[in-house]
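[User] Could I get a sequence and structure tokens?

[Assistant]
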Amino acid sequence: MSARRFVQLDVFADRPGAGNPLAVVLDARGLDDGTMQAIARWTRLPETTFVFPATRDDASYAIRMFSPRREVPFAGHPSVGTAHAVLEAGLAQPRDGLLVQEGVAGLLPLRVEEDGGIRSIAVRTPRARIVEVDEDGGNAVVRAAIANLPAGALPPALVDGGRRWWLAEVRDEAALRAAQPDWDAIAALARATDSMGVCAWARASGAEGHDLVVRAFVGAPAAFEDAASGAANATLAAWLKSRDALPGGRDHYVVSQGREVGHDARLHLRVDADGEVWSGGRVQTVVRGEIDW
């Protein structure tokens, strides 16, 4: 087999161009690791996913995720986007409203909801753990990385939820949107702490229907601002829950991300009664066709 079904999606988007792009190869049987990495490098998108038949009866399908540089054990927007592509292609159907993704991070359920013909998908993210809290600002590497970010109330924290992020509250929405990251310092922090970089966040003004604003500054292996990160937002939700600081004290809230890099994503975060974090939103299919490798 050389030609395989292939789609490109926009994830966490209510319209094409608003969210985070993703490529999906819908039948990846027969592709080895080197070929999948080569395809992901060629698409030059944040991630490319590869769909396989499930190897377990309790899974809907299996998935591998690759950035242009390496395999990724878990990421939010590829999980949500791939579920959308699998549903559109008729490769799986929800059971009791859930799909189950089999991958490097284990079995992860995805909740599928439809309202007025509009589909929303959320993945239950790997349970996060708090690795370090810089309560007194004594970590010089952290302090350098967030020096350009006017501080909010909560201290910076390193949280691991499938991907490891430093979470830094900024004083307000206007300050975060205007912030200019120190890329060298963020890259140094990412390398020193084996993290993705800095996920900066602020409480929103309330005028536009979102509760938080997030900017995710990736420091390694490449430096860039992520348009919409389900995993970063999931670690943030877990951190806020641990500090009893969820927006408005509610278990569900909406995040605006990506506007500063030409996108306008909306992510929906929910913390359920068991403390599990669900990260999701809408997905737009932009390209349908085949890839002949």
Notes: The chain has six helices and 18 strands. The CA atoms of residues 209 and 254 lie 8 Å apart. The mean pLDDT is 97.
